[in-house]
Amino acid sequence: MLDYLVIAAYFAGMLIAGYIGLRKTRGSDDFLVAGRRLGPFMYTSAMSAVVLGGASTVGGASLGYQYGVSGMALVFMLALGITAIGLLFSSRLSRLGLYTVSELVGLRFGLSARRLSGLVVVFYTLMVGVGQVVAIGTVVTVLLDVSASTAVLLGWAIIMVYSIAGGMWSVTLTDVVQFCVKTVGVLLVLAPLAISKAGGLSGMAETLPDFYFSPTGIGIGTIFAYFLLFFFGFMIDQGNWQRVFTARTERVAFWGCIASGAYCAFYGLVGALVGAAAKVLLPNLSNPDDAYARVADLVLPVGLFGLVIAAALASTMSTASGLLLGSSTVLVNDLFATSKFGAGRKLGVGANRIALVLIGLIALVISFAVGSVVGAVTVAADLLAATVFVPVLGALFWRRASTLAAMVSMVVSAAVCIGSMVVFGLYANEPVMYGLLASLVSFVAVALLVKREPAPPLRMAPAEKTAAGSA
């Protein structure tokens, strides 16, 4: 009973945060980017929460169950990606006053490029959001002993209520709570108890195969594929960029990303060790994605089990809500607003709420047909990294870049990536490798060989304006 009270209190806290966000939301800036006025703690907490989703917590423990400490490779690449956002992009992004990745592409390369990149970003954010919804189902199923469909529907409903109510303000407030819950639940409670129950690190080393404690046990090829997928892809992730736009100053955006990257790397290592401990304690699980919830059920006393399950829910719900909001933001601002149906219309909070409901319903339907948390993320990240990363770099850093180069690059790389999925399989390493190479080669070749006027450079706002109105 105590465990259920803890979970109920967590859910109630999410709904209260949604109500507070509703009260704070006055316009599109509040709904989409929390008024661009988050300070260091809220910004870093929110950034970490959106990074550490189901793929990092449930999926990270699953990889640790199968491969040991090298299972942290996925989360480590996410951590590197978020650090790179701080080092390379945060200052520029803070001064542009944007809402989306595709808006940046459009500023430099025009409307067609904005729409095409918008389609890719919507697909990516939607599919990664689906992965988080699936992860919610695996956790709630263990907790309540209900069907996966019922579990998914329950978690999805709570996410939608607080996200629709207050947009980014609600998402940020819930992220801060979720960051604290997962820090206590995973790092301070589950990991020490699970590792101790498995005999400590020395006992685990005696029981498990040697490759479980090798940094490359998962395979060099897989680590490299994660680097291509999640390092490059994460640097242009809409959910991450939308968080960057919430920082009240360039300094907050920069150092918040660095701190978040360090935290996430440590979280990844701990999650992999939890998975390895689960392999010792529960060696015959049919589905490795169940490792997190099953080992928590085994090693934790009443009350603490509820806290750790809340931590898993926190990780998935924070990422899911941010991604679904990101997908709806691109749908409204980069696709609908630039179409003949939306041109000239004033698209405020109401339009964004309607789009969020639509995206949420689509995600719910797809989630019933998706079986792998990591797999859903992988397919979506293939296309995003392959098609959008090079044009974004060109938009920000290369004066010679042209609109034609961006369009050709996105079309060619998408075709190569999809073709490689057909040939090598949806979850193979080759699609993102060949897609990125095709994107780079075609972008540079067209920009250098086809005589076109370079796209006009981005105009940065004065640095002083980034701190205006900060709170």
From TrEMBL:
Pfam families assigned to the protein according to its UniProt record, in alphabetical order: SSF
GO terms of molecular function: transmembrane transporter activity
Membrane topology: Multi-pass membrane protein
Keyword Nucleus: no
Cell compartments where the protein resides: Membrane
Keyword Membrane in annotation: yes
GO cellular component, one term: plasma membrane
Transmembrane segments: 6-22, 43-63, 69-89, 118-144, 150-172, 184-205, 211-232, 252-278, 298-326, 347-370, 376-397, 404-426, 432-450
Keywords, alphabetical: Membrane, Transmembrane, Transmembrane helix, Transport
InterPro entries in the cross-refs: Na/Glc_symporter_sf, Na/solute_symporter, Sodium:Solute_Symporter
Residues annotated as signal peptide: none
Protein family membership: Belongs to the sodium:solute symporter (SSF) (TC 2.A.21) family.
Protein name: SSS family solute:Na+ symporter
Organism, as annotated: Tamaricihabitans halophyticus
